[in-house]
Structures are given as C-alpha cells and as structure tokens.
Design goal:
The protein has two domains: 161 residues, Aspartate Aminotransferase, domain 1 (Alpha-Beta Complex); 261 residues, Aspartate Aminotransferase, domain 2, CATH 3.40.640.10. The longest helix is centred in the last third of the chain and has 20 residues. The strands form three sheets. A seven-stranded mixed sheet has the order 4-10-9-8-7-5-6, with helices on both faces. The chain has a four-stranded mixed sheet with strand order 1-2-3-13. It has a four-stranded antiparallel sheet with strand order 11-12-15-14, covered by helices on one side. Strand 7, helix 8 and strand 8 form a beta-alpha-beta unit. The protein has 432 residues and is of the alpha/beta class.
C-alpha cells in the first residue's frame, strides 16, 4: 500500500505535467525530481538516481552545493532585482572575477540569462563594431534555439525545421569530426579539409572583409561531444587574425572546469575576441554572459543592447560562490584527473566491441559514439543504452548529429566511489 501511494504520487505529477505543460518542452526521463544533492537526484518515490547529466553541464559543483545555497539565501534576503535602473554590487564583483579567470586580454563583461541570449549579444557586438554582416559557423554546432541562434545551429535539422526564414549572412564550414570524416585515421588531413573549405568560402561565397566573426564550440556539445584535433583552434585563430575577423568561442557547455581547464580554449594558446559562457557559471541559477576586450566594447554605444533580468543579484551571488568552489576544491584539475581515468577505462572496455565506434572526450566531457553493424551512426543503440542506464538508476543523455552518442557530464566533484559506481553501471549497459 505504501509503495502504491508513492507511485501514485509520482504519477499524479506526471499526469499534471501532461495536462498543463506545453508538450514542446521535451524531457529525457519520466522522473519527477523532488530534491537533489551532490551527484544524486531523488524522485517523488524517494528513489536515488546517479546523475551524469547535471542539467546538461550546469551543476558542475554538484546539485545544491552548500556554499551556493548559502549565497543564494543571503542575497535573496538583501536584494533580488534591480534591472538596469541602478547598479548592483554582485554584478560588479562577478564581472571583476570573470576577468580574472578568463584569458588575459578579456576585460569587459555583459551578463544575461541564457546561453542563447549570450550568443545573440556576442553576434550583435561583432556585427556592430566590425560593420560587417557575415558570420561563419561550423557544421554540427549548437548555439541556441532563438531565431538568430537557430540559424547558427546545425547539430540537427529538427531544431531549425519549419522556422524559416531564418536570419541570413551565415555561412557554415565543416567541423573536424575525425571519426565521421573521410580521414578517420588522419586528423591532420581532416583539419586541412576544413581549412581549405574556409578558403573556398572566401573565394566563392563571401569576401573575408565582409565576415564579422567565426563562432565555434571548442568541443562540440549537441553535435556529439566532438573534440577537434589539437592545434585546430590555433590555426583558426591565425586565419581570423589575418583577415581581421573576430573569433567568438562558445564555452556555454565547456566552461567552468568541465574539460579540465577553467575554459576549454585554454588547452591551446588561443585567446578569443569574445568568449561566451552560461550553464556551469552559477550552480543552477539562470545566468550567462560574454566577455570581450574594452577596446572592442567601447565602440558599442550604451543602450544598443540590454536586458531586464540579466545579471540578477541572486544569480551573480550564486556564480561568485560557484567559482569559489571550483577554485578552492580544484575542480578543473579533478575533472582532468578523474575524467581522464573514466575515458581510458571506457576506451579499454570498448576494444573489440563493434557497436562502440569511438569513445572520446576532454576532462569530464565524454562521448560514446555508436555504430550499427554496417558502421553507420546508430541512434537505436544509443537510446537503448540510455534506457538501460535509467533502469539501473543512472541518468545519461544522448546527443550527436543522428542521436548516436551518449554523453557523460558528471559533477566535477563526483566522489571516487560514485564514479566507480557509474562506470560499473555503464559497462553493464554497454555490453548489450
């Protein structure tokens, strides 16, 4: 009877969701979260799920970290909202902190609410200051679902389909996705093909003097957790500098320690002109931003861009606490160590298993790419593995251009025992 009551309570909320929530809002699992702590989400039945999704790379310091919760509670009792009517202290303190943890030349911050908003703002900045219309994005990218960011997103047609006409002056180059390229065993040739294509764009589609910016994810997220060959971003930076094109690096999913560095672009000696951040910035509170150089932003007059809720004092306080946890607990370093161990273990496990095409990753951003018997991307296997994981109380998400990738995004402070448990469940489910 007690179990039936629990099940009925859980199902009652799902029934309400089905009745009142717009069905366009897709969820990956039929779980109603009641609470969360650290690496676990607890549903209405009290069942604990080990969470390797972290709200899609948001809970980098785990769910409800005590320092973040305390900062939210304290700030909420003092000041919740100002908009742009007056300045607020947490915004200013966070802007200063972001200039300290991002690449050295970046020193001018704008805060918003979501990744898509930050992408839109960065494109507006690049176009306004350069006086150029063109943007070059990369195949397999995900930059958001607003009208402009949809035009920049090519990870799936599903995100763009039936929303045309989309904003123009956007040109798409291939991303060096070595495993799904014609050069599976030759990363250098794959990179060369991409760079040659960019030159083709300049010769046949848009003059480089009309290009405002490149926009790129240093590791593709929705496109399949694709890590480009080392050195690619450096070469792209060289092309951008040669033609006076801004380089916008979208670190919405890769930022705040996720890849083993505070920001993924730090794996190479690359400084963007604009760096976009969101997701892991504020421990789960809605916040995003982009940071550029004062020499660029000083050419963007006041009022040319704005926000009502961006840089909310409570979200900023949460972000300051989150960054403090990342630094004090050395979580980027832990992501590199533990993520590297998880990657090597899964790569070893995958040997000899035809359905596991490639295991790749950087830090705690790991993708498992599945093949069918003919070597084609297999969405069916990825979804089957994700379902089996959920049955075993492990939450994982799929991604990839054909939905063929399982992505692992644990909290950066996942314990050794939790990481071991996750690997055991994964190996069990991957065995098929």
């Amino acid at each position: 009877m007690v179990m039936a009551e629990k099940l009925n309570k859980n199902q009652a909320y799902l029934d309400l969701d089905d009745r009142y929530v717009n069905p366009v809002l897709s969820r990956s699992a039929r779980i109603v979260a009641d609470r969360a702590k650290g690496s676990y989400i607890y549903d209405m039945n009290g069942d604990a799920y080990l969470d390797l999704s972290t709200g899609i790379a948001v809970a980098n310091v785990g769910h409800c970290h005590p320092r973040v919760v305390e900062a939210i509670q304290k700030q909420a009792a003092e000041l919740i909202h100002t908009s742009v009517t007056v300045h607020n202290k947490p915004y200013i303190e966070l802007a200063k902190k972001l200039t300290e943890i991002t690449p050295a030349t970046l020193d001018s911050v704008f805060l918003a609410n979501s990744g898509a908003e930050a992408v839109e703002g960065s494109i507006k900045l690049a176009r306004y200051v350069s006086g150029r219309p063109g943007i070059i994005n990369f195949r397999g990218s995900f930059h958001g679902r607003t009208m402009l960011t949809m035009a920049l997103t090519t990870s799936k047609l599903y995100y763009r389909e039936k929303y045309e006409p989309l904003p123009g002056s956007i040109h798409t180059a291939p991303f060096p996705y070595v495993y799904r390229s014609h050069f599976r065993n030759n990363p250098e040739a794959c990179v060369k093909e991409v760079l040659d294509y960019i030159e083709t764009l300049f010769m046949q589609f848009i003059h480089p003097e009309q290009v405002a910016a490149f926009i790129i994810e240093p590791v593709q997220g929705e496109g399949g957790y694709v890590v480009p060959p080392h050195g690619f971003l450096t070469k792209l930076r060289e092309i951008a500098t040669k033609h006076n094109i801004m380089l916008i690096i979208d670190e919405v999913q890769t930022g705040f320690g996720r890849t083993g560095k505070m920001f993924a672009c730090e794996h190479e000696p690359v400084e963007p002109d604009i760096l976009i951040m969101a997701k892991g910035i504020a421990g789960g509170m809605p916040l995003s931003g982009f940071i550029s150089r004062r020499e660029i932003t000083s050419k963007w007059p006041p009022g040319r861009h704005g926000t009502t809720f961006g840089g909310n004092p409570v979200s900023c306080a949460a972000a300051l606490a989150t960054i403090g946890v990342l630094e004090d607990e050395k979580l980027p370093q832990r992501a590199a160590k533990v993520g590297g161990e998880m990657l090597k273990r899964l790569q070893k496990f995958a040997q000899g298993k035809q359905h596991i095409g490639e295991v790749r990753g950087l830090g705690m951003m790991i993708g498992i790419d599945f093949d069918d018997k003919d070597g084609n991307p297999s969405k069916e296997i990825a979804e089957k593995v994700a379902e089996k994981c959920l049955e075993n109380k492990l939450i994982v998400l799929t991604c990839g251009i054909r939905g063929q990738v399982i992505r692992l995004i644990p909290a950066l402070n996942i314990s050794d025992s939790e990481a071991e448990k996750a690997m055991e469940i994964l190996e069990k489910c991957l065995a098929l």
